[in-house]
């Protein structure tokens, strides 16, 4: 079970800090909710306490695992030549896991595809969302400002482009 102040990842939304626990009555039923404050975008999410296990909430990575994420971003991309719809579904499955390493693969591969062939509108939105998910978790793991982390990630992702 999680407590106030815990840093957690909410799959498909990214990392945040459990800011409070509130009781809300919805449709005549009162439930307790974790209020998750996100480090990027000032967004707050309410997550039913009794549904945390089903949603896949997990602790954030340790700071020393950030290097593994960076290594994935620096690896050569895996260019999936299937149609955009299948690629989108495959990438969405990775993102729904909430696994930062899988999400880093999505960012790496979509960034490469964007450079080489361009992305569909849906894939562009997915890339933005995936980058924010990674950024929020690294920001909390390293106690760094989200904008600083985003600039750092962009510099890593664009590293090979700048060298050409």
Would you mind describing this structure in some detail?
The structure is a single chain. With 164 residues, this protein is of the alpha+beta class. The chain folds into two domains: 7-59, Thrombin, subunit H; 63-163, Methane Monooxygenase Hydroxylase, Chain G, domain 1 (Up-down Bundle), CATH 1.20.58. Helices cover 51% and strands 20% of the residues. The chain has seven helices and five strands, in the order E-E-E-E-H-E-H-H-H-H-H-H. The chain has helices at residues 52-55, 66-74, 84-97, 100-116, 121-142, 146-157, 159-163, and strands at residues 7-10, 14-26, 29-37, 44-48, 58-59. The protein has a five-stranded antiparallel beta sheet with strand order 4-3-2-1-5. Helix 2 (66-74) runs parallel beside helix 4 and helix 4 (100-116) crosses helix 5. The protein is globular, with a radius of gyration of 17 Å. The relative contact order is 0.16. The mean pLDDT is 89.
Q: What's the domain count?
A: 2
CATH architecture of the largest domain: Up-down Bundle
CATH topology of the largest domain: Methane Monooxygenase Hydroxylase, Chain G, domain 1
* Gyration radius over CA: 17 Å
Task: Describe the largest sheet.
Answer: 5 strands, antiparallel
Number of strands: 5
The portion of residues forming beta strands comes to: 15-25%
- Percent helix range: 40-55%
Shape type: globular
Instruction: Supply the CATH class of the largest domain.
Output: Mainly Alpha
Overall average pLDDT: 89
Report how far apart the termini are. 49 Å
The CATH homologous superfamily of the largest domain corresponds to CarD-like, C-terminal domain
Instruction: Kindly name the structural category.
Output: alpha+beta
H and E order? EEEEHEHHHHHH
Helix count from the secondary structure assignment: 7
Unreliable stretches: none
Strand order of the largest sheet: 4-3-2-1-5
